[in-house]
Amino acid sequence: MIKTHILGFPRMGEHRELKTALERHWRGELPADALEAQAAALRARHWQLQLNAGLDHVTVGDFALYDHVAHLIQLFGCEPARFGFTADETPLQRYFAMARGTVARACCGGAHGDGTAALEMTKWFDTNYHYLVPEFGTDTEFSLHAERLLAEVDEAIALPASPKVALLGPVSFLFLGKSKQDGFDRLALLTRLLPVYEQLLTRLAARGVTWVQLDEPILGLDLTPAWAEALRQAYARLGVVGQPLLLASYFSPLADNLDLACELPVAGLHVDAARAPEELLPVARRLPLDRELSVGILDGRNIWRSDLDAALTQLRQVQELRGGRLWVAPSCSLLHVPFSLRHDAALDTELQGWLAGAVEKLDELRVLKRALWGDEASVARELAESRIARAHRIASRRVRNASVAARLKALSPEADQRHSHFPTRQAAQRQRLRLPAFPTTTIGSFPQTPEIRAARAAFKRGELSEAVYREAMLREIELAVAKQEALGLDVLVHGEAERNDMVEYFGEQLSGFAFTANGWVQSYGSRCVKPPVLFGDVSRPKAMTVDWTVFAQSLTNKPMKGMLTGPITILQWSFVRDDQPRADTALQIALAIRDEVADLEAAGIAVIQIDEPAIREGLPLRRDAWGPYLAWATRAFRVSASPVRDDTQIHTHMCYSEFNDILPEIAAMDADVITIETSRSDMELLRGFGQFKYPNEIGPGVYDIHSPRVPDTAEMLRLLKKAAEVIPPELLWVNPDCGLKTRGWAETEAALGRMVEAARALRRDA
Ligand code: GLN
Ligand code: ZN
């Protein structure tokens, strides 16, 4: 018997209908019942697509108005007490209050006035999806509130369809939450949580649900014995409730949890055969034959049309080992791919044919199931088309560029090394730049005002000529430079007015990238991103930033910092080709950036920043894979940064994360100056740099740019003094946490004015 199913489907809708509905609801333009009706219509449409593809079950429970983890917080009745909810508030109001905070909070991270800060948001494993973090403490109680979920089950049954309910499992739910009291171990809550899961499973079985998929993606992490034991304990109980359970793992190899995953007493196991193909046969052999094995054969994290022949070969091997029984699925929820790409208006037909969004992956499942049934003839046309598209992709001259390959091959081992060690470079740079102690700078972007956005939109619609648009951006650069001069900053930036997005801007100018019209992927809540498609060898037809930067430099005698996005960040925020190692693709991007660096230097630019905010998020989920990743990632950065003379100063910038566990590698990037986000941690993040004796110069962010709040000079001075306790003062720079593009000019000027004042005060005191 062959079954097909999916672990989850994108929620936004073909045209991001959910985003529109949510934002209208939040603006007070769409009542709650109308929002719910639209959500129900989207679910019905998405289930119909699953039925059309011949899936054996439609997946229920994966839909979320904002986030699926937040849904569980309500399902299990553990809304944090700090929200102080009253009986007057509807579940929907409470849900959005947790997701978005309450009004008085504005948009800062902390609680102010009468408002309550939203739940913290963090990355869902190594994806770009962000979930809301449950809060746990000694007083956390659980109780079942299954009305919403049961109503969705009924909707599916009414279609009619056979629902498989998909939820996060209890151990991953606790793992992904946060202990709100020091020293409180949230694992202690497991015994309180399990009875509620049990009740839910019983209710679902009574409702006619034949399968429940419980996701335990933490099986792909390095688990402590306590967490592994928790999985054993949980499934020893839930496995006997009588509701058949499919335990799902994804994103990462099971590795030392493979035996554990195969031993848990559940009715079925789903594994990710895209991320861990080498484990497929071992699992197929190891898993008892009375269990179902669901093979995640289609890559749920990427957008390439599958090699169906290769998939069939693998699946048949498993089929043979498993006495013919098999479930076939994408590797993980399709949440991480766009709704559809096959007819994307911005792509030519050739590229369209290479890609598969969620809808196309459903169709691949349909074809695989038919073929595995022995009915290959009925899908011969689809299999042939897929084969041809693949062959075209492999042979396409758009994918392979001989000169890029040759350059990569000829790259010398020293191409990632500067000419001299840091102390020599530092002396040469001091000579050239003549900066004061505690030099001040910013991270790159200045406010992207409504006027800038409007001009760009008009230009893209063809309503504004390139010349007029360019003029407008040059005026913005003039404005930004004049303001920085007036503020007294030491190293200036041009402000990035001409950039829509730090990756898209470069992708659009490099060969090997394509952009979709509708390839949206949910990032959090109603926010979606449209990652570029990196499909071919990367090269740089011409300089990308030199004109703008040289113009900006011509307006000032202060050093103008060239501003580039680094190879790992470009890689990390794109859909990346799967026909060569990511390391090779990173190196190709690095070479393109290297050329830009060289051109900037040749044009007289003395300071060049290469942003790598995403270097940490590229870390594999398993610790033993960190070393190889960091080796190629840091080398790619160095290759991009190393063509320059000693007296050209290379900066890098990182944010969004903790770095203390990869400090040696960050140091090995050997940037002359690194600026990092630290203000929200009260400089605590910097302590690691101090203890590690980070050798080069550092600019710890002295104020949080995520908030419109203008910090006091004294506050920044205090942070700087704190920084100077752990970092040798002669290495310290003064700058904000990150770019200022989301801020307005008024608060930006006020905050930077005080920042410059704080630096001056520090110079006086020092
Ligand atoms: N240079 C970029 C900016 O200032 C950096 C953005 C980032 O780190 N995310 O906007
Ligand atoms: Zn940043």
Automatic annotation (TrEMBL):
Its cofactor is Zn(2+). SUPFAM superfamilies: UROD/MetE-like (SSF51726). The active site is at 706 (proton donor). Keywords: Amino-acid biosynthesis, Metal-binding, Methionine biosynthesis, Methyltransferase, Repeat, Transferase, Zinc. This is 5-methyltetrahydropteroyltriglutamate--homocysteine methyltransferase. Zn(2+) binds at residues 653, 655, 677, 738. Pathway: Amino-acid biosynthesis; L-methionine biosynthesis via de novo pathway; L-methionine from L-homocysteine (MetE route): step 1/1. The gene is metE. It comes from the Bacteria. Pfam families: Meth_synt_1, Meth_synt_2. Its EC number is 2.1.1.14. Residues 3-320 form the Cobalamin-independent methionine synthase MetE N-terminal domain. Residues 438-760 form the Cobalamin-independent methionine synthase MetE C-terminal/archaeal domain. It catalyses: 5-methyltetrahydropteroyltri-L-glutamate + L-homocysteine = tetrahydropteroyltri-L-glutamate + L-methionine.
